[in-house]
Amino acid sequence: MKLSWRVILLWTLPALIIGFFFWQGAFSSAPADMGRNTASTRMTYGRFLEYLDAGRVTSVDLYEGGRTAIVEAIDPELDNRIQRLRVDLPGNAPDLITRLRSDNISFDSHPIRNDGALWGLLGNLIFPVLLIGGLFFLFRRSSNVPGGPGQAMQFGKSRARFSMEAKTGVMFDDVAGIEEAKEELQEVVTFLKKPERFTAVGAKIPKGVLLVGPPGTGKTLLAKAIAGEAGVPFFSISGSEFVEMFVGVGASRVRDLFKKAKENAPCIIFIDEIDAVGRQRGAGIGGGNDEREQTLNQLLTEMDGFEGNTGIIIIAATNRPDVLDSALLRPGRFDRQVTVDAPDIKGRLEVLNVHARNKKIAPEVSLEAIARRTPGFTGADLANLLNEAAILTARRRKDAITMLEIDDAVDRVVAGMEGTPLVDSKSKRLIAYHEIGHAIIGTLLKDHDPVQKVTLIPRGQAQGLTWFTPNEEQGLISRSQILARISGALGGRAAEQEIFGDAEVTTGAGGDLQQVSSMARQMVTRFGMSDLGPLSLESQQGEVFLGRDWMTKSEYSEQIASRIDAQVRSIVEHCYDTSLRIIRDNRAVIDRLVDLLIEKETIDGDEFRQIVSEYAEVPEKEQFVPQI
Ligand code: ADP
Ligand code: ZN
C-alpha cells in the first residue's frame, strides 16, 4: 500500500504535467460563452461601420464590457434575411453608443459571465497545486520512510517488515489435533503470565522455543494461541524477510524487532521459516553468505542480550531443523524443541470439529468418516477441505454441506480441479485400460492397498485416476508391500503395452514411473531390501543447496553405484513381469471393466471387487482400522 502510492504518483506526475499544458491550452483558447446569441461568423469593425452607414444594422448586443458585439444586420442581397455576426470592438467606444442611439438601433449590454473565467482560473491553478502537492507528498514520504531516496544511509532501520498484533484472539481451543505440542507449550503461557512463580525459586525462563514440523500443521496458529492465552502482543516476521540484498539490512531489522519487542514486553516474537537465516554458517555451495551470517549473528546477540526474565519469548518455526546452525540450538537460545506433526485420525477429527464450528453441516455427515478418508492431511488441508466443501455447497445452492460436497472437496484438494470428461475415442479407451490396469493389480495383489474408486474424470494433470484406501496410520511398511505398490504403479503401463502393443504406449505413465524408480531406489539405498544387504547408502534425499546435505550425498564408490543401479533395475523388472502376467491372465474381466468404466466414468471399489470376484479370487485384505 505504502509503496504503491509512491509508484502511482511517480508515474502519474509526468502524465499530469503533460496533461496540464493540454488542458491549459484548451481553457485559454475556449471562447467565452456568449449566452444564447453565439454567432460564428465574424465581421471586421470597418465592415460593421459600413453596415451602420448603410442602415443595415438592426440591433447590437454588447458583451465583455463592450469589447465584443453580436450584430444583427439585414442582407439586402438575400431577401433581407437577418444575419448575425460577431464583431470585435476596439476597446470601449462611447461614441459608438451615441451613434447607435441616434440611429435608433436597439442595443443592450450583457454582464461579464463569471463562471467561464472562474473555470479558466481553476484550470490554470489546479495543476500547479496538484503538482506541488504531489511533490510535497513524495518528499515527505521519502523522508519519513527510511529506505526511501531521502535517507539512503539508513535503509535498514525498521521498514516495519514485522507485524504486531496486540491481541491475536486465538486460543488453545482453536488449535486441535496436536495435543502433545499444546501441552508442552502450556508451560510457556504460564511463564508469560506468572513469571514470579519461576523467578522466585531462581529458575530462568527459557527464551526460545523451536516448533518443528511440515507446513500447514498449525505452528503459526499455535504461537498465536500462546500469545492469545497469555494476553500478550504477538510480533511476527518470516525468516526470509530478514535476508535482503544489502549486507546489514537483515541485522538492523533484527535489532529493530527486538527493540520494539522490549518496549512491549511481555510478548511473543514469532519467526517463521527460521532456516532462511539460521542455516549452518559457512555451508552450501559457494561458501557462506555474508548477509545471512550477519543477520544470524545479530539474532544470536540479541537473544543473549536480554535477561530471560524480561518476558520476551521467541518462537521459531521450521521444517528443517537438521540444517539449522548449531549455535541457534544451544542452551539459552532455542533450547526447547517441540514437534508439530500432521495429525493422526483422532487429531484430524478434532481439527474437523474446530473448523466445522462455524459451518452449516447436514446432520447425516460424519466427520469421523472424513477423518478416515484423509490420512496425511494437515490441519491446513482439513481447514481448506471444509472450506472447499462449503463453497461447493453454496454453488449448488444447498442449505447445508452434505457428504457429496465433502467427497468432491477431498478429491479436489488431493488431485486438483475436475476437468471435462473425454469424449469416447481411442485415447479414452487407452486411459481406461491404463486405470483398470492399476486397479486390477491393486485388487489382486494381497499386499496392495484396496481400490477405493477408479475414474475417467480428469483432475489436475491426470486424465484418469485410481484411488486406493491407504492402510491407516501404519508406521512401518514391509518389503512385500513396497513391491506390491511398485507393481500396482506399473499396472497402467503394463495394460497399455499388453493390450495396445509396444508402439502404442503413451507418456501417461510418466508420473507412475517416477514413483516406481524412487520406491525401488529407496529399497536398495535406504532400507536394505536388496541383494546388496542391509546397508544405508544414502541419507534422505534433500536439496543440495540447503546446506549440510552437500557433504553427505554419496557414501559409496563407483562400483557400488553401478550395483545399486543393477539392483534397482532387477526390482522394477521383477515387478513389471508380475504386472504383465496379471493383466494377461485377467484379460476378460479387464475388457468388461473397461467397457463399464467408459460407460459410467467412475466405478467404486466395492463394485470393482464384486466384478473381479466373478472371474478370479480376490484376496481378503487386512485393513487396520483405528478406533477413534
Ligand atoms: P504452519 O504455520 O504450520 O505452516 P499455520 O498455523 O499457518 O500452519 O496453519 C494454517 C491454517 O490451517 C490455520 O490458520 C488454521 O486455520 C489451519 N490449521 C492448521 N493446523 C491446525 C490445527 N492443528 N488445528 C486447527 N486448525 C489448524
Ligand atoms: Zn497411471
Q: If you had to describe this structure to a student in words, what would you say it looks like?
A:
- There is one protein chain.
- The protein is an alpha/beta fold.
- The protein has 21 helices and 14 strands.
- It has helices spanning 2-29, 45-53, 94-102, 114-144, 179-193, 195-199, 219-230, 239-242, 249-263, 275-278, 290-305, 345-356, 367-373, 379-395, 403-415, 426-444, 479-500, 510-525, 558-585, 587-600, 605-613, and strands at 42-43, 57-63, 68-75, 81-88, 106-109, 163-165, 208-212, 234-238, 267-272, 312-318, 336-339, 451-455, 465-468, 602-604.
- The strands form three sheets. Strands 6-8-9-10-7-11 form a six-stranded mixed β-sheet, sandwiched between helices. A five-stranded mixed β-sheet has the order 1-4-3-2-5. A three-stranded antiparallel β-sheet has the order 13-12-14.
- β2 and β3 (68-75) form a beta hairpin.
- α16 (426-444) runs antiparallel to α17.
- The radius of gyration is 41 Å and the shape is extended.
- The two termini are 48 Å apart.
- Bound molecules: adenosine-5'-diphosphate and zinc ion.
- The site of zinc ion (ZN) has 5 residues, from α16.
- Adenosine-5'-diphosphate is lined by residues 175-178, 215-221, 317, 351, 354, 379-380, 383.
